[in-house]
From TrEMBL:
It comes from the Bacteria. The chain crosses the membrane at residues 12-34, 54-72, 84-103. It comes from Adhaeribacter swui. This is Uncharacterized protein. Keywords: Membrane, Transmembrane, Transmembrane helix.
Length: 105
């Protein structure tokens, strides 16, 4: 029973850290890239008005997430490396909803 409680507590703590990391990353990049008022220079219609900012968001998001993966994979013990990779793939999957939120602003 104690092992099960310890396992659940570890996973809950990992989930809290993951949510805090993703929220800080999303809102930080949103503040850096999408806080300025938008002015369209040309009259040509575009599908995504701020496509340059969207590309910068994707590149910075991937850079920070891959950097965090590299740092964490060096810091955690060997038995937890598969958990770090699981959170990495979940973070990459969350990039799509984040992009949808940013594009629909």
């Amino acid at each position: 029973m104690k092992k099960l409680f310890s396992f659940l507590f570890e996973n809950l703590l990992q989930l809290i850290y993951f949510i805090a990391f993703e929220a800080a990353l999303y809102f930080g990049l949103q503040y850096l890239l999408f806080n300025q008022p938008f002015t369209q220079d040309t009259k040509d219609p575009t599908i995504v008005p701020r496509w340059v900012n969207v590309i910068y968001f994707i590149l910075l998001y991937l850079g920070v997430v891959i950097g965090a993966l590299l740092v964490l994979s060096n810091l955690v013990p060997r038995k937890h490396k598969n958990q770090v990779l699981r959170w990495f793939w979940l973070s990459l999957a969350l990039m799509l909803p984040f992009l949808i939120l940013l594009i629909n602003q």
